[in-house]
From TrEMBL:
Superkingdom: Bacteria
Residues annotated as domain HAMP: 184-237
Transmembrane stretches, start-end: 20-40, 159-183
EC category name: transferase
Name of this protein: histidine kinase
Residues covered by the Histidine kinase domain: 245-451
Catalytic activity: ATP + protein L-histidine = ADP + protein N-phospho-L-histidine
Native organism: Actinomadura spongiicola
Keyword Phosphoprotein among UniProt keywords: yes
Tagged with keyword Membrane: yes
Length: 452
């Protein structure tokens, strides 16, 4: 706000564009009008100057030859004010228009042959274009004046300037109005999109803004808005599903833990309290695992930046597989120098999840291989278990999705291990899939190679 009025930054787009265009047009028209006036004035006075030179030359010759002492003949219809004055200031001769007038009160010209042009005001005649020259006669030096009244030019100059100013203002107003109307029509689809967006809420699933025609920048904007709405709808759907799954998974162990404690407290003298504590601890461990996995998923989904380093994937796999004993032996085959740019502890978590999953389902052995394939580093974990049916190869990566065999082998799992592993792979620009295999399950991780 300035002086109680809103500043231009608070104006609408239509008002700002119209004002900017009007200002530019006003400046251009004003400059054009001023230039036109100056050119026209220059043309008028240039014509007067040429004719004045001709008149004064003719008059000086006549005065030098005829030595007039009475009336001077007028030979140009515009230059009717003629006068000859001697050096003492006495009028020697004049035209009918100046008969009986005193000598013109103007500065004397210099040496003969150099006329002086000026614009003066003569009483009774108004503005006059006057040319004066000294001429050498038999009586000595005399001053010759020739003047043309410019009453018409002077009289209508104000009107002419007023017309120019009016034209500039009218032209500016017309252009501003045209621009305002054009901008209003151009922004009509934007207003429509704005209204549609205001009506779209969380309950308006599937609604999209109207794409205007023809295919121009506004149509591209509408298409971009629709793409964004689709992404937001997908995120909202995943969030709702995630909240529903989380509430279900957390409710089960909490309900079981509460029921165990309530039953134990009803008959405390009959309970085996170490057994109750162990059961409660098992439920607490499961709750801790679920919460820990949910925190990791939340960080990965939020895109929290974590520093990355150059890691030898083969060496990392060898060290992690040898870190603790497993139920079944693990055979590791890695190529040398498979370098990737990753967050090491995230890849360790991914590898641990894959090994735990393979160990859970393997009958007698697990194979882990690391190799380069074009621009990617490829990590494969294969077990000799029952494998994953083709229709379940995507479902195993869903949150809290556990196949029947997995629930039988490990009832304390959270169902988030493979989900977290895939999110880690995607966060590093890679992929994690369940691929075809001749024996058991085969999980394949691809990460971009770091060739620095």
């Amino acid at each position: 706000m300035f002086g109680g009025r809103p500043s231009p930054s608070g104006w609408s787009l239509r008002a700002r564009v119209s004002a900017a265009v009007a200002l530019v047009v006003f400046v251009l028209l004003a400059l054009g009008a001023a230039l036109f006036y100056l050119v026209l004035r220059g043309v008028v006075f240039e014509d007067l100057r040429d004719r004045a030179d001709f008149v004064i030359n003719d008059l000086t010759v006549y005065v030098r030859v005829a030595d007039p002492h009475d009336t001077l003949p007028v030979r140009d219809a515009d230059f009717t004010l003629l006068q000859v004055v001697n050096v003492e200031g006495r009028v020697v001769a004049s035209s009918e228009s100046l008969r009986g007038r005193a000598a013109l009160d103007v500065p004397l010209p210099g040496e003969p042959g150099r006329p002086v042009h000026r614009t003066v005001t003569i009483p009774g005649e108004g503005r006059v274009y006057l040319v004066s020259e000294s001429v050498l006669t038999r009586h000595g030096v005399e001053i010759v004046h020739a003047g043309a009244p410019i009453i018409v030019f002077s009289r209508y100059r104000g009107l002419f300037i007023g017309l120019l100013v009016g034209s500039v203002l009218l032209g500016t107003a017309v252009v501003a109005w045209v621009v305002a109307v054009a901008v209003r029509r151009a922004l009509r689809p934007v207003r429509a999109m704005s209204g549609e967006l205001a009506e779209i809420t969380g309950r308006g699933a599937g609604r999209r803004v109207t794409v205007p025609g023809p295919h121009d920048e506004l149509a591209e904007l509408a298409e971009s808005v629709n793409v964004t709405l689709s992404r937001l709808e997908a995120v909202l759907s995943r969030q709702r599903g995630f909240v529903a799954d989380v509430s279900h998974e957390l409710r089960s162990p909490l309900t079981g833990l509460r029921a165990q404690l309530e039953v134990a407290l009803e008959h405390p003298e009959d309970e085996d309290w170490p057994a109750v504590a162990r059961a409660a601890l098992a439920d607490a461990d499961r709750l801790q695992g679920i919460v820990s996995d949910l925190l990791i998923l939340a960080k990965l989904g939020a895109g929290v930046h974590v520093a990355r380093e150059r890691v030898d994937l083969g060496e990392l796999v060898r060290s992690e597989t040898a870190r603790r004993p497993r139920r079944v032996p693990i055979e590791v085959h890695t190529e040398e120098g498979i370098m990737v740019g990753v967050t090491a502890h995230h890849i360790v978590r991914l590898l641990t999840n894959l090994l735990d999953n393979a160990e859970r389902h393997a009958a007698s052995r697990v194979w882990v291989t690391v190799a380069a394939d074009g621009p990617d580093a490829v990590l494969e974990v294969v077990d000799d278990g029952a494998g994953i049916a083709p229709e379940d190869r995507e479902r195993v990566f869903w949150r809290f999705q556990r196949l029947a065999e997995g629930r039988e082998r490990d009832r304390g799992g959270t169902g988030l291990g493979l989900t977290i592993s895939r999110d880690i792979a995607r966060a590093h620009g890679g992929t994690l899939v369940a691929a075809d295999s001749d024996k058991g399950a085969r999980l394949v991780l691809r990460l971009p190679l770091d060739r620095r």
